[in-house]
Fold these 2 entries.
Entry 1:
Amino acid sequence: MPTELLVAGGFYTFAVLAILGSIALILSRVIFRSALSLTLVLASVAGAYVVLGADFLAVVQILVYVGAIMVLIIFGIMLTPQQVVLETARDPGKAVAGVAVAAAVFVVTTGVLLGSTWPRSNPTPVDMPTTAILGEGLLTTFGLPFELASILLLLAMIGAIVIAREE
Amino acid sequence: MPTALPPLYPITLQHGLVLGAALFSLGMIGALTKRNAIEILMSIEVMLNGVMVTFISFARHAQGPALGGQIFAIFIMTVAAAEAAVGLAIVIAVYRLRRSVAVDTVNSLQG
């Protein structure tokens, strides 16, 4: 089926880009290059959302992450100068320990995920617009969390202003 | 024990889950080994993205009438936006106080 082939090609392309971007983010010593790698990761993940059938979320990912959060992070880098290059680890032992912990998390998680059987394991059709379904869900079933999310955003906005304000 | 690996094609649930786990672990490496607070925040964004990939894979796998997995991903995105705003405000406040964004220089609560 050509659609399946397209989904597989798109998924592997975006997955490889996202993982390479994450590795570049870890290895980069210049923080601005880390920020650019993060942009690559976020945009690739948005592409993966498209092939996984989340078209609305992919656009939201571009708007919120690649647009807003990246601008915020780059402003943060700009407002904290003279720290452009900062050596990665305090001492190599701690870095090795961090990598070991993360590798252990990956091995155990992947083992469990691949070892379990998930019922209904056939991929569903992906060419389906999700915006209407999501909007209806947010205003009916998930109405209370939706309202709480708006309060959370308001509080975060006020908190950020209060914390970062010049005295 | 993991039995046989799933085939590379077509894309099933497991592929998305492994991508999510890989992004989560790579973000965790960054969050555990970086010293710059802004780089740690960026690594946490990568971890959150791994979690969202997992939720969206499950939403595709078990496509209920309400797409609950994708709605959860929207809420993760909301919390991530709030976290980035407050986190960067804290980094800037710490920088103003300490002239440094290295997390191991902020140790006045360490006793």
Note: Helices of chain B lie at 13-33, 37-61, 68-98.
Entry 2:
Amino acid sequence: MTRRTTRWIPALCVALLAAVTLAGAVEAQQPKRGGILNIADPVGPPVLDPHKDGSYQSSGMVLTIMYEGLLIRDEKGELRGHLAETWKAVSPTVYEFKIRRGVTFHNGREMDSSDVKYSFERVIEPKTGSPFRAIWSVIDKVEAPDKWTVRFTLKYPSAPFLNYLAGPYAHQIVAKEAVEQHGDLNQVAVGTGPFKLVEYVPDSHLKLERHAGYWKKGVPYLDGLNIRIVKDESARLAAARAGATDMTYVTAVNAPAVKADRNLTLVEGDNVFYGMTLAQFIPNASKAPFTDQRVRQAMNLSIDRKEMVDTVVFGSGVVSGPIPPGMGPFAVKPDYRVDVERAKALLREAGHPNGFKATAKVSPQYPLDVADCQMIKAQLGKIGIELEIQLVEWGQFLKEWLGGNYDTVCLTSGPLADPDAFTYDYFHSKSPRNRAKFVTGELDDIVTQARQAVDPAKRRELLVEAQRRIQELAPVIYLYSANGFEVHRTPVKGYKPNRISRYGLSETWLDK
Amino acid sequence: MLRFLSQRLLVLVPVLLGVSMLSFLLLYLIPGDVVDILMGQESGEPARLAEMRRLFGIDRSLPARYAEWLGEALRGDLGRSFVTKRPVLSEIMTAFPVTLQLTAASLLVALAAGLPLGILVAVRRGRASSIGISLLVLLVLSVPSFWLGILLILVTSLYLHWFPPQGLVLLWVQPVEALKQLLLPSLALGLALGAMVMRMTRSCILEVLAQDYVRTARAKGIAETLVIGHHALRNALIPVVTLVGLQFGYLLGGAIVIEEIFSLPGMGRLVLRSIAQRDFPLVQGVLLLAGTGVVLLNLCVDMLYLALDPRLRRR
């Protein structure tokens, strides 16, 4: 060969090398199929029936992978069609949904409008014993005029209705034959979701495998999921560090250890599972001296929320009002100031110049609540209110709090799907979920209007006004909203976290 | 012998009746019920709650509920768990083998460590090695077993990069995996028990070695190993058998803390969960089993005495 002809050989080599490297780089971005993801969860679902389990924070970790609803929320919190392709409001109380074709249940049968009708009627039926019946009893009737259309007629206009169709309260579509064959869905799961149940041992583990007939083409990428219930947080963290589990959850105290480990990624935020909790201090508004608004406002003025966030959750949270800031633009960012002098003055006006004694009940099953209580005790001590903290076991705590047998409680609630729950459910005098025994009826008007305002702009206005009034009356002393912490081993890719759903596992893949 | 056995087995009847009545009463007295737990913070309309209570059957009077439960139990039906809706018997049969294998493994560790050490320390009494071992054992005894458990997990996972498989692995289903799983928790439990066994063995042997017949045996020229192994040990073992028997019965009820740390779905976790959830049928079932276990175990221990102590056989 002459010199001329051999000059292109090095150039060709470089070109080939570049091509191979580029291909490699591009390939690294493409999801890889296959593999089993190991997950360690702190709690497991007591039963698998999506219409019967009231503890969506445990069952939500599993049910959101096996079952689906008509709508779903995307990363921005916007409602999107899921099992329903399109929908429209025919009138303020009538909604029509077009059902997606080609959706198969785990047993192979295609889903249609009769399944939607069946599912919602099952939730509303008193004999089912669903804890979420109250939410869906806004429905007057469900009709399936043809195979691909469902029509809901409501008893009154309801702003939260569409939001609730995206979950997490018994919004899932189930297969009628599964219920008839087994009596209930407590130990079996026949849904339409990306993964189907293979094995379930309560309080121990669940094995799920890929639903080959899943309606969304191309997903899920994983072959299956191995979910183990590991209650102890240090054991979960050790499992993640040793590679025995690929995904798990921790609290703020273990976040530094996760960050220090090269093999682990920490996902933190309010839109992460167990995120957007709402820590509260709730006085009994039906019991003296808390019946007096001035006493409640005095307490509101003496609590330093920023100090609590820094101390209890090491800064991983935000100060919050009645609606946690992460919920949406209608959540008002509170402007709390600590004013001990004004607080003392209010107490004097209310007839307690030297403060008073009261008890604060809290459940030791929730250590963060106990920490909150201790800080509140210290802070309220400055204005002369002496709190005696009583540690009460959870079952007993529920009984006493719900029965109105308390002075104050320290409690955290989990994320809720719609602001209506934070306003109407908590504060309407006739609401069975009235949080603070606030039954004067002063908030009834505004919360009812906000519930029925279907127009988003009007609703936002009303919600803002409701929050302002709630803060003024202070039936609940709001503290902060904490972040959730998810731990992933580095090969876990593609998971989009969400505080009430693990549907993101449908697009997760293992890079190994 | 047969009469002795049947007499002892008859004791089961009043014991189980007593246990079931007491636990029913206690559960009833504890504030809160399964409906409160299931509804949690979202608990609502009184009508709804009353209806749920009726569905669970917990709205009736206590004697009526006990009578119904007793009737069914006598027919072998322990009912269904309020929370998981599975039959109580199958819940227990899922958890019991896990506890059984943990208990057996822990006892093996305890005996393997405690007996030889106890004998060694007794025989070499006063020597430096004996004092050293005693101190070490005292340390193990003072440390809580759950702390030991967490420490073991940390050490093996962080430094050896080995984490035991968690969850339900049965010995007769997957022997190798099960042994891997049992290693750390049985060490955590077994070492603590082994320390007790060692101390008991040591003091019993010392006591026996001071007896006249031992002096006689030594005077007769019998080898020391035979003196201790044959003459002394059998007599010294009786209190040790009592200790181990009692501990076995106690452990069968579930080593709650160890099971929580190692995520073993055994009786301990089952009991804890069912009480926290006010799951009446499940608690009753578990306590019934525990009561039966204790009675049967005491019977076995007594039989073991008969084997060990010929003086008892003459009665």
Note: Residues 106 and 187 of chain B are 7 Å apart (CA to CA).
